[in-house]
């Protein structure tokens, strides 16, 4: 996954299969997102779920949150 170089995390992702040319855009998006991640080896990791005021984490709530990134909060398709 990666290694620490002092206080700097160096990503070293290994893929089980080769990326196809059509996947280049997604790979570039992933690399761009990972560059924005700031890791700190001096503090313990923790998870925070804060999509809404009182909503508890469920797979459905995570999926709705992901869809809101694509469609916007007011345009999420109805899922049943």
- Please count the helical segments: 2
The biggest beta sheet reads: 2 strands, antiparallel
What is the average per-residue confidence, as pLDDT, rounded to a whole number? 81
**How helical, in percent, are the residues?**
25-40%
CA-CA gap between termini: 36 Å
**Measured on Cα atoms, how large is the radius of gyration?**
17 Å
The percentage of residues in β strands lies in 5-15%
Strand elements, count: 2
Question: SSE string, helix = H, strand = E?
Answer: EEHH
Shape call: flat
Unreliable sequence segments: none
Count of structural domains? 2
> How would you write the strand order of the largest sheet?
1-2
Category from helices, strands and their pairing: alpha+beta
Task: Describe the protein in words.
The protein is an alpha+beta fold and 80 residues long. Helices cover 31% and strands 10% of the residues. It has two domains: 46 residues, no CATH class; 34 residues, no CATH class. It has a two-stranded antiparallel ribbon. The protein starts with a strand and ends in a 9-residue tail after the last helix. The mean pLDDT is 81.
Topology, please?
Elements: E1 2-5, E2 8-11, H1 24-35, H2 59-71
Antiparallel strand pairs: 1-2
Concise structural overview:
This protein is an alpha+beta fold and 80 residues long.
Task: List descriptors.
80 residues; 2 helices; flat
